[in-house]
């Protein structure tokens, strides 16, 4: 087995620490990638803080770009040397949901990877001294990772290899929320609660979909300023202004679609409060275990409101689309990525994320020389 430097989460509430791990080669329908970059996502922080259960020790990181170094049997759409980006949802293509086109709720991905930290033969590709190391998605906070082939997508030359990492979660999740779930139409009004990495992507994509008004809501004026740069037509600091009243003051009524991109009971309740009659609340934020919704049931019934969950998107259709948008310059990755870190700063990046000091998306530039 080849060896690879990686950052390991030994147990909850501890900083990630560097180690050298053994990396098994790709199995059938798998791809070995030399990692160029990996995004810094709040979902990984949930795992670090034990707010989302996951086996440990583990290597996190699920937003990856890099160069294909080896392919397993049955892989024909990419080859060694190809520049690629990977979706954090790694669909098996065979379970009852995948065959219906619902790759974003792939049972194999949830049962094997999210519950057990394994790939789909029931094993992990990472180890140290004979001990298995769990993989969160493809375990991208390492110099090499193994990815199921259906989650690997070739990049055109005009998409920067390092920046392309954020296509696989931040933009992929935003695209799923805006296009696959909400189906935002030209002329609609939209509110986005929490202007972090995913929220900013939703703002950017909602404007690209033709939304007439996109209202960003956050407690951080710097994030709200960045939201304006990425397409928000209006901003609300919810520490200073009651958002529901402010929205009605702007529009005369609620919004057609409210996106919740944080994952808390209070912000989910707010998303529903912001809606006009017949509106859609799309929940895209992952909440710590045990958090529940607290909403006015009668209001939902009488006003014909819809509450929709959104977790990523079908990889086979969404990833080619976000790659196309990036290639055509319709997504500004440079603005979305506000903080860049060297591989050696991986643990520091998550500390800054926990301290709310990363405005947009953070990016670990694992091997900039590959770009």
UniProtKB/TrEMBL annotation:
Oxidoreductase listed as a keyword: yes
- What this protein is called in its record is Zinc-binding dehydrogenase
Q: Pfam families given for it?
A: ADH_N, ADH_zinc_N
Molecular function terms, GO-annotated: oxidoreductase activity; zinc ion binding
Q: What is the similarity comment for this entry?
A: Belongs to the zinc-containing alcohol dehydrogenase family.
Give the required cofactors.
Zn(2+)
PROSITE patterns assigned:
ADH_ZINC
